[in-house]
Design goal:
- The complex is a heterodimer.
- Chain A is an all-alpha fold.
- Chain A has one domain.
- Helix content of chain A is 68%, strand content 0%.
- Chain A has 2 helices and no strands.
- Chain A has helices at 9-24, 37-64.
- The model of chain A is unreliable at 1-11 (pLDDT under 50).
- Chain B is α+β, with helices and mostly antiparallel strands.
- Chain B has 2 domains: 3-118, no CATH class; 121-243, Alpha-Beta Plaits (2-Layer Sandwich), CATH 3.30.70.
- In chain B, the strands form 2 sheets. In chain B, strands 1, 2, 3, 4 and 5 form a 5-stranded antiparallel β-sheet that branches. Chain B has a 4-stranded antiparallel β-sheet with strand order 7-8-6-9, with helices on one face.
- In chain B, β2 (31-34) and β3 (39-46) form a beta hairpin.
- The two termini of chain B are 47 Å apart.
- Classes of the chains: A mainly alpha, B alpha+beta.
- Chains A and B meet through α1 and α2 of A and β1, α4, α5, β5 and α6 of B.
């Protein structure tokens, strides 16, 4: 398994921290095209599901290997 | 569609102030919209990716979201050493430079207040992980059904007591770190499905500190020694993302 396929845990956690901060915190601003706060939350739920399903896939692939 | 693909939008990343020469050089290719007291850090992004319809699709693309989040963080982070930064949540997109200016004009007082409140502050992330629970004693050792049930009940009770004692320790850990910081936000611990870690995350907190103040780091080192069965992880210093919005009084 290469480093690209399986990043170090610390890197994964950092990316998660980063997504958490950039999408979930910070001042909410309104622009003329701005995503509504609710939209981001909904999208983030989608992202979580996506991440969750990916990690499930990965672990079942590991079990199968 | 082809016209949309060529257009650019203005993405706002953060508010900074005061705007000195060091801030101007730190933003590099990004543009400051504002004046010497307060400015919005902006950059042009392609409408084909960030426009109304495209954005909704891209936001469900994990790779895209990760790349955009990293870019957003990179813009914000490069300003941390030279200025007080109020990070904006991702998604402040404007059609024109004038719209960004208008946007700053309307919110100016609020941003100046936020800059004042967060002057010289950064946030540290602290996560505390629990060791995986001890393995349940194998059922085959029990000679009878009743023995098995009794063991099950005892194990359950033990787990509940363990949890109760851990909760008390976690509370005191947070109180110690809060005392070393100016403010704190307790976020929901990240679930195992996302961390991919067999351990359970018990604390996922952000502490607001003066830049360069190591009081929280010193406490974490002490706590590591006092709680050898817990794993402490410190990240940052970050721009004060978790403290950018003023708490409701």
């Amino acid at each position: 398994m290469t480093a690209v396929e399986s990043p170090a845990l610390a890197e994964q956690v950092t990316l998660l921290d980063l997504v958490d901060r950039v999408l979930n915190t910070g001042v909410v601003l309104t622009g003329d095209l701005t995503l509504a706060v609710a939209d981001v939350d909904l999208v983030y739920v989608g992202l979580r599901l996506l991440l969750a399903s990916m990690s499930t896939l990965e672990s079942s692939a590991e079990r199968a290997a | 569609m082809t016209q949309t693909a060529m257009r650019t939008l203005w993405c706002a990343y953060a508010v900074v102030g005061p705007v000195g020469e060091d801030v101007r050089s730190a933003v590099g290719a990004f543009e400051l919209v504002g004046d010497a007291d307060v400015a919005v850090v902006t950059g042009r992004v392609p409408a084909s990716e960030f426009g109304d319809d495209a954005l909704a699709l891209h936001l469900n693309d994990r790779t895209w979201v990760e790349r955009v989040a990293m870019e957003h963080q990179a813009v914000v982070q490069q300003l941390v050493p030279v200025a007080t930064v109020v990070p904006l949540r991702f998604g402040s997109l404007h059609r024109t430079r004038d719209a960004v200016e208008e946007f700053l004009h309307v919110n100016r007082d609020g941003y100046l207040a936020a800059l004042e409140r967060l002057r010289g502050r950064v946030e540290l992330g602290v996560k505390v992980w629990l060791a995986p629970p001890p393995p349940v004693s194998p059922a085959e050792e029990a000679a009878t059904g009743r023995e098995y049930l009794e063991r099950r009940r005892a194990a359950k009770q033990e787990a509940a007591e363990r949890r109760k004692s851990i909760d008390g320790r976690l509370r005191s850990i947070h109180e110690r770190l809060l005392a070393a910081a100016e403010d704190a936000v307790l976020n929901r611990p990240q679930p195992r499905e996302l961390t991919g870690d067999p351990r359970e995350m018990a604390i996922n907190a952000a502490y607001l500190v003066a830049a360069g103040d190591d009081a929280v780091a010193v406490q974490v080192d002490l706590l590591r020694t006092e709680h050898p069965d817990l794993v402490f992880e410190v990240t940052g210093p970050w721009a004060p993302y978790n403290f950018a919005e003023e708490k409701d009084a």
